[in-house]
Amino acid sequence: MNRPLSDLHVAVLMGGISAERQVSLSSGEECAKALERQGARVSRIDAGRDLANVLSGLIKPDVALNCLHGAWGEDGCVQGVLETLRIPYTHSGVLASALAMDKDKSKAVLKAAGLKVPGGGLFDRRQVATRHVIDPPYVVKPNAEGSSVGVYLVREGANDFASEVAAPDWTYGEKVMVEPFIPGKELAVTVLGEAAGPRALTVTDITPVKGFYDYEAKYAKGGSIHVLPAVLPPHVFEAALRQAEQAHTAMGCRGVSRSDFRYDDVKDDLVLLEVNTQPGMTPTSLAPEQAAHVGMSYEDLVRWMVEDASCPR
């Protein structure tokens, strides 16, 4: 977009149908307000499966700011709808979005690119609920969800299993990802896919206030402590920046992405957990916090995302 925001009609897609609906509503509302402060005309759209009909009923927006998270909004589906309607949109395209949401396939791509990823693999959820499929400690997570939804930590010496994944109301697929737990620091790096190449902003060290870095620790006010820039050996800090940029490229991302790492400071071992193609934009989110650290206000970041929007042919 080469036009000022005051000339643009922006459809902010939020909410959606995934387990991350509430986070998306918060992200979308914050982004909508930031756009309105800069003079844009904003249509707030709670994006369900009727999105194509809803958008077709509007005066066609100039751009769609995708603030959806999880299934439907982050996995290539909404991206395909927007391309069909010929509406430029923010963040990654169909293929990169679908790939990043599939932890098993994305790990294969990242590993092929020379990046270190966790071991483990996919297992039937009922097996995982009744026995240790790998030696504890390990982490159990859905193969295609984000925001630590449905994530469980089975600790060393535990006699119980991740029984929750066999519950009748489990909706995250028959296969779950099981990975060895990596001790140490939880790190995150935001990347902007600029014309000159991807640019990593900084590294954040995340410490949950209580136990594991789960959904509540990510989004509840005061749920975690963010230290940025992270206090790390210089070679680790630099490696996290460069590997996040490399991952952004390997996955085919565009716009904003965020790479999540674990760093075992005893073994000096940096492991890339996953790439998120739709980082949160809530008041507690990492991407706007890192942008502010390098001199980009929340409004600057939202404007950058809108200006970066495109619609591949």
Automatic annotation (TrEMBL):
Catalytic activity: 2 D-alanine + ATP = D-alanyl-D-alanine + ADP + phosphate + H(+)
InterPro entries: ATP-grasp, ATP_grasp_subdomain_1, D-Ala_lig_Van_CS, D_ala_D_ala, Dala_Dala_lig_C, Dala_Dala_lig_N, PreATP-grasp_dom_sf
Pathway this chain belongs to: Cell wall biogenesis; peptidoglycan biosynthesis
Keywords, sorted A to Z: ATP-binding, Cell shape, Cell wall biogenesis/degradation, Cytoplasm, Ligase, Nucleotide-binding, Peptidoglycan synthesis
Keyword Transport: no
Annotated EC: 6.3.2.4
One GO MF term: ligase activity
The protein's required cofactors: Mn(2+); Mg(2+)
Compartments, as annotated in UniProt: Cytoplasm
Keyword ATP-binding: yes
Enzyme class: ligase
ATP-grasp domain residues: 107-307
UniProt family annotation: Belongs to the D-alanine--D-alanine ligase family.
Function, in words: Cell wall formation.
Protein name per its UniProtKB record: D-alanine--D-alanine ligase
Organism lineage string: Bacteria, Pseudomonadati, Pseudomonadota, Alphaproteobacteria, Caulobacterales
